[in-house]
Design brief:
The protein has one domain: 3-Layer(aba) Sandwich (Rossmann fold). By secondary structure, it is of the alpha/beta class. Strands 3-2-1-4-5-6-7 form a seven-stranded parallel beta sheet, with helices on both faces. Helix 1 packs parallel to helix 2 and helix 1 crosses helix 7. Helix 1 links the parallel strand 1 and strand 2. It contains nine helices and seven strands. The relative contact order is 0.13. It is globular, with a radius of gyration of 18 Å. It binds NADP nicotinamide-adenine-dinucleotide phosphate. The site of NADP nicotinamide-adenine-dinucleotide phosphate (NAP) has 32 residues, from helix 1 and helix 6.
Amino acid sequence: MARKRRGEGQTALVTGASAGIGVDLAECFAQDGYNLVLAARSADALRDVATRLAAKHKVTATPIAADLQVQGGGSKLAAEIKKQGLTVDVVVNNAGYGIAGAFDGSKLDEQLGMIDLNDRALVELTHIYWPQMLKNKRGGVLNVASTAAFQPGPLMAIYYASKAFVLSFSEALWEEANGTGVHVSCLCPGPTQSKFRDRAGTGKTRLSNRKVMTSMEVARQGYAGFRNNKRVVITGFSNAMTARLVPFLPRRTLLKIVRGVQSPKEG
Ligand SMILES: NC(=O)c1ccc[n+]([C@@H]2O[C@H](COP(=O)([O-])OP(=O)(O)OC[C@H]3O[C@@H](n4cnc5c(N)ncnc54)[C@H](OP(=O)(O)O)[C@@H]3O)[C@@H](O)[C@H]2O)c1
């Protein structure tokens, strides 16, 4: 008889599942038997991911096109999930974007948009599904932050701050859920292969000289961490070491270092 997979009978909602890390996180959950609800704006890409993962891992995968950056985007998505007769056991808050550059001269709608997607929508979806998770004593939340969460980010200030919010919120929830059976993990990737850097413009900064991990490596580590209810998952040895070093650096020195990393590449 085939071994029962850990996620059988449960559903994971994965946001930002049309590209990059979200696709691979969805695959990790599907591999373990979770049915999927996949959300992002690009309906065609979502449908392709859903069809491929459902066939490969013998799960159901429902694509729902949703813009989570708009006010109430999370509630609208949840209403559509309910309308389709689906429930959610695990929320993977992965959708997000960054914009590199000085705050001066930046576009306000893009700066606020980062807060709306990276933080507000993440809180909204977590708030919707959290009570049922606690009642069920299972499931949980996997929030995708970044190594940017561990320090302020001159020349990418709002993105770094938005990810610091995700880390702080996630760690607090982890403690609130302690002993309930509900898992909370905060995944903190460093530079990762995806479309992220095209949108963020980080390919033109010195940050792009750093080692880049594949999105599947990042997703596997994130999923393994979530399974074990690991509070914070920093992907890659050097990223983890750097994050551990940060609290010991004088703040002014740290700010200069990050500013250097976020500065445009020469030549
Ligand atoms: N790549 C890196 O170096 C890196 C490092 C650290 C942390 N991260 C974090 O990892 C997460 C995933 O990023 P990624 O690297 O996989 O980037 P990506 O390839 O650009 O994927 C971003 C995903 O978010 C979705 N998304 C963007 N805007 C959305 C909106 N308004 N509503 C709903 N979905 C939206 C995109 O789909 P649509 O465009 O179809 O909506 C896409 O599926 C983000 O939170 C990012 O901050 C990335």
